[in-house]
Amino acid sequence: QRCSEARERSPERLHLDRCSLQRCPALLGEDRLRLLNLQANEITYISNLDSTPNLVFLDLYDNKVQKIEGLGHLPNLRVLMLGKNQIGAIENLDMLPKLDVLDLHSNQLEAIGNLHS
């Protein structure tokens, strides 16, 4: 959890890239957050995002995420960056009605499901 001064300086953005994180941190009090950068960590699954309902941009590029999940509390998400992970299936996107951009390059995709126009 970041200090209140840091939150006030940049209430809509949080950069936690290259921090050797093994999981998504709990983001209590971050309801104004719109951009979350978790690039280049060791995260294996998406979690702890239920207190960030206004998130629009989620960057998990270059992690170890294996499955698209844990995004049910992000109704405003427009951009999801999941390139360079270990994802095997495109799934669980129907809960993201505003999603415009999905980056899945350099994954291990074998199945595509739940895509609606």
Describe the SSE topology.
Blueprint: H1 4-9, E1 13-15, E2 35-37, E3 57-59, E4 79-81, E5 89-90, E6 101-103, E7 111-112
Parallel strand pairs: 1-2, 2-3, 3-4, 4-6, 5-7
Identify low-pLDDT runs. Answer: none
Q: Give the helix/strand class.
A: mainly beta
Helical percent range? under 10%
Strand order of the largest sheet: 1-2-3-4-6
Mean pLDDT across the residues is 93
Overall outline: globular
How many strand elements? 7
How many helices? The count is 1
- Sketch the major β-sheet: 5 strands, parallel
Q: Please provide the ordered H/E string of secondary-structure elements.
A: HEEEEEEE
Distance between the termini: 37 Å
Percent in strands: 15-25%
**What Rg is obtained from the alpha carbons, in whole angstroms?**
14 Å
Structural overview:
The protein has one helix at residues 4-9; strands at residues 13-15, 35-37, 57-59, 79-81, 89-90, 101-103, 111-112. It has 117 residues and is mainly beta. The protein has a five-stranded parallel sheet with strand order 1-2-3-4-6, with no helix packed on it. The longest helix is centred in the first third of the chain and has 6 residues, at 4-9. The model has no long low-confidence stretch (mean pLDDT 93).
Q: Summary?
A:
It is built from one helix and seven strands; from the N terminus they run αβββββββ. It has one helix spanning 4-9, and strands spanning 13-15, 35-37, 57-59, 79-81, 89-90, 101-103, 111-112.
